[in-house]
Amino acid sequence: MKLDEIKISKAIIEAYNKKLIDALQVDVAIVGAGPAGMVCGYYLAKKNKKVAIFERKLSVGGGMWGGGIMFNEIVVQEKAKGILDELGVNTRACEKGYYLADSVESVSTICSKAVKAGVKVFNLLSVEDVMIRKNRICGLVLNWTAVEMARLHVDPITMAARFVVDATGHAAEVAHIVERKSGIALKTKTGKVMGEQSMWADVGEDTIVRNSKEAAPGLYACGMCANAIFGGPRMGPIFGGMLLSGRKTAEILAKRL
Ligand code: 48F
Question: How far is 159 from 163, CA to CA, in rounded Å?
Fold first, then answer.
């Protein structure tokens, strides 16, 4: 059989169009395919919820690939090890109560499990705005990352979601957009993004799970951005909090859907 480039192009264009059109209306739209967003998507998809993740970069995985200072190992604590076990990520005990995992194996396995559970991941798409109706966040405004990077004057498209999850990490980009543009007060002490505090793993890992909650009507904070929004320390290359935050957010949303 001779290979035909036109057939290859047509197959890709048709399949992607179908996938994107189908994602224009979902139960949960997650912004950011870091560890927290992907774990959240995995648990929601396992409960048969329709989930799309929009990721700015070419690759998924956010800050997990590089472990600590580019040493590609991550640490998780006892409480979170069960999530890696469930996903099939190998862990090795190091100090008592601390487990190591290869960060490349962690990212690739979490992503694979999320996609196989039914999550649709759209890389190279940036969220530049939100859709708000009746004072509730109910969708996202998307543009190609290439358009954003080249600063081209190209209008975005819009998709609808029953819930939106901000899983954009330290930047808390969706919450910042809501603060800047909507007039809706965030459910924080100040009504605004509180900002993350200096490194303190022990406190940060706890607060991140507590802060994984609704940040504005229709908008949930998940992963590092939960501490950025509600105020809590960063925690460095320990990733248990990200996994637990992703699972907690999924559990709350599964009940609300
Ligand atoms: O930063 P990231 O990995 O967030 P996370 O899942 O995990 C945090 C840890 O990696 C680490 C840490 C551990 O102690 O503190 O930082 O909370 O992943 C966030 C993803 O969101 C994407 C970004 O490219 C990254 O992959 N992202 C950020 N803003 C946007 C976005 C946006 N506006 N649109 C689409 N994707």
Answer: 11
pLDDT recorded at residue 73: 98
CATH of the domain at 75: 3.50.50.60
Residue 30: the pLDDT is 99
Please check whether residue 5 lies inside any domain of the structure. no
Burial of 46 (0-12, 13-18, 19+ CB in 10 A): middle
Q: What is the pLDDT of residue 83?
A: 98
In the chain, the number of structural domains is 1
Pocket probe mutation, ligand 1, options 56, 177, 230, max atoms within 8 Å of Cβ: 56
Distance of alpha carbon 120 from alpha carbon 41, whole angstroms: 9
Alpha carbon of 34 to ligand 1 centroid (Å): 5
Rounded to two decimals, what is the model's pTM? 0.98
Which of 168, 230, 243, 249 is the pocket-test mutation for ligand 1 (most atoms within 8 Å of CB)? 168
The residues of the chain scoring below 70 in pLDDT are: none
**Measured between alpha carbons, how far is 70 from 229 in angstroms, rounded to an integer?**
26
